Amino acid sequence: MHQTDPPRSPQETMPTMYDLPSELIGESGLPDEFHRIQADLLSETCQPLTYPSEETLLASDLNLYYDPRHTSWYKRPDWYMILGVPSASQQQDLRLSYVTWQEGIDPFLVVELLSPGTEQEDLGKTLREVNRPPTKWEVYERILRVPYYVVYDRYKNRLRAFKLIGTRYEEISLPENRFWLEELELGLGLWQGTYQQTTGLWLRWYNAAGWVPTRREQAEQERQRAEQEHQRAERLAEYLRSQGVDPDSLS
């Protein structure tokens, strides 16, 4: 791009999500069936009390561009949350990628679902290669400074969570495989149950009242309440009839 007089602002000249690739053919680490179902459960039960849904972005396998000096570098977290950004209200506004220098807000929490091929990098045990992009751990901890980083290993049924303290991640003790985030009035933990017809140990959000219900669970709860209300009405009507009172005459 040729120089202009006066020079154009970085906001005008930096690449946007329309300029950057959102996927690469043959890219490794793309989601399997477990990753898809687990990400759905995280998104469906994530209901922070401190942020409205229209200001909360929940993303799964969406390219995360993090370095304006190296605009082609990105990571693809299995699931992440960004607070204080508008969600798309129209289909044409849905994000192709998340570009930090355009959005101006970094992720609040990142979740990685371990697989044998990604475990070393996800846990910060790999060293950065010369002239290569930084590792996931480096990006989340040192570049984006993501406040919370969560790693779930379904093969070992192990949940680990890290909180940014100063400049480094410190592991959070999880005696019951749960941890509470005061900033959201919401917690994250391991739940044994069935979701999308698949039974297992899942990573799921909970609040002060318990596990945040899925849409299907909410519908079932409403059905049960309606059935209980119907039964109470039937019992009352039966009692009135036993007393010689026509319940229909009272309506």
Taking the sheet with the most strands, its summary is: 6 strands, mixed
Helix/strand class: alpha+beta
Give the termini separation. 78 Å
SSE succession:
HHEEEEEHEHHEEEEEEEH
Overall helicity: 10-25%
Strand composition percent: 25-35%
Query: Any idea what the radius of gyration is?
Result: 24 Å
3D shape: elongated
Q: Biggest sheet: strands side by side, in what order?
A: 1-4-6-7-8-9
Number of strands: 13
Mean of pLDDT: 87
Low-confidence stretches: none
Q: Tally the helices.
A: 6
Explain what this protein looks like in three dimensions.
It contains six helices and 13 strands. By secondary structure, the chain is α+β, with helices and mostly antiparallel strands. The strands form three sheets. Strands 1-4-6-7-8-9 form a six-stranded mixed sheet. Strand 12 and strand 13 (210-211) form a beta hairpin. It is elongated. The termini are far apart.
How is the secondary structure organized here?
Blueprint: H1 10-13, H2 33-45, E1 56-59, E2 64-65, E3 74-75, E4 79-83, E5 98-99, H3 100-103, E6 109-113, H4 119-122, H5 136-143, E7 148-153, E8 158-165, E9 168-172, E10 178-181, E11 186-195, E12 198-207, E13 210-211, H6 215-242
Parallel strand pairs: 2-5, 6-7
Antiparallel strand pairs: 1-4, 2-3, 4-6, 7-8, 8-9, 10-11, 11-12, 12-13
